[in-house]
Amino acid sequence: MPAKENLFAASARMSLAKKHPLKDPLLQEEPWCATCHSRPETRLLCCSRCHTAWYCSKDCQIADYREHKEDCLDVSKHWKFVEEEAASLRMTRFAGNDENLFEMRVGFFGEIEEMHDYIEARLGLMTTYVEAAFRVEIKSVWEKALHHALALLRLNATGPPPSPILSAAIFIPLILQRDDDTCDMIRFFINIDTEREEDMHEYFRMHSESKEGDWIYPREKNCRFLNFFDECADLTSPDQQMPFLLALLLVKCGIVATYNAISRSIKVFESTSGGQRIHEVQMIVKEMLVDESLVNIKSQRKQVDRLVCGIHRNNCVVLRTLLEPDSLTGYILSQEERGLDVSLSSGTMSLLVYCMRCMIRIPGTHDVLEEDFMKAGFYDD
Ligand SMILES: [Zn+2]
Ligand SMILES: [Zn+2]
Question: pTM to 2 decimals?
Fold first, then answer.
């Protein structure tokens, strides 16, 4: 093939990659018809009961009804619970006060017994949205799930956050390609000193001055590129929470995978253009490459190494399971055949599900992790 055609072909591939450098094969930016997956010119109809399913026509809605019914009723049932609990809280007077609890006690819901049923109901609602989001993979449904997770973190700030809420708040932004948000949150939670009065004062101020569903954690642009071993003391100490470490590892593997993919595309481009029209190439490359000094790929690779070692030292099952999920499902099935019940805690299970979902979002993440795991010799353990 003549050089020119090669260049065009490479350029077409590049601009495709440029359009979707972090293409997630699952996430749907816009809703589509739950039955036929079409996106008609005219508006899709949204299920008015649950707002998690869309249809191109009445026929498609009817065709999906049996499949959809249970999930749909689940969402509306949990909404009802939340509203009932909220109504009863509004009726409750504390020490004769007439205060609006939803404004005055933000952050302290965990400490007040009367609020616990409300928190439980809200957690149930968040969980149904998370489940719906995993099913439909539509951006706005993921955003709803995140909204409820953030609302819960905001209401209930005393004590360590319950793991399903924390996992949702950490991993859903990753699925939504908001890696900086996830990193901001991880850094915040690892570094907050709950013994320090000023820290806690500032922490509760952040809560009381926010609105429901707000992102209240301090934001830093490009936080994902920072060296987290500099940012956080004792990052991989044995008592560090696993969701933080795993989310961070997936962010870092994603950066390395993206960098590798771009470098490969550049090599193809250079070899096929034979040095001609080099400034055209350079222009595209410049647009595609983020600032090298900002990325600092050496540091990113090193952080992957250290996180892999740290996580594997703390838990020798989790990374292997992520790399070979079939071995886990195979193990569970074989145990079930023998009539044994494999009880993985629901926290561990949901952590694995989130991680596996996040590994798909950037093609190449799995390879980066696998290579590092192998290099460290952990397959021989
Ligand atoms: Zn349809
Ligand atoms: Zn519905």
Answer: 0.87
When pLDDT is averaged across residues 39-65 and rounded to a whole number, the result is: 93
- Among residues 192, 150, 155, the alpha carbon closest in space to that of 170 is found at 150
Please, which residues have CB less than 5 A from ligand 2, an ion? Answer: 47, 49-50, 53, 72
Token pair 């708040």: residue? 169
What's the pLDDT at 4? 32
59 Cα: distance to centroid of ligand 1 (angstroms) = 8
CA of 54 to the centre of ligand 1 (A): 8
For residue 72, the ligand closest to its alpha carbon is 2
Nearest alpha-carbon partner for 145 in 354, 363, 362, 355:
354
pLDDT in tens, 318-334: 898 889 887 777 777 77
pLDDT in tens, 256-269: 998 888 888 777 77
Summarize the confidence of residues 214-236 as an average pLDDT: 94
- Which ligand ends up closest to the CA of 57? 1
How far apart (Å, rounded) are the C-alpha atoms in residues 357 and 14? Answer: 26
Domain residue ranges in the chain: 76-221, 250-380
Report which bound ligand comes closest to the CA of 74. 2
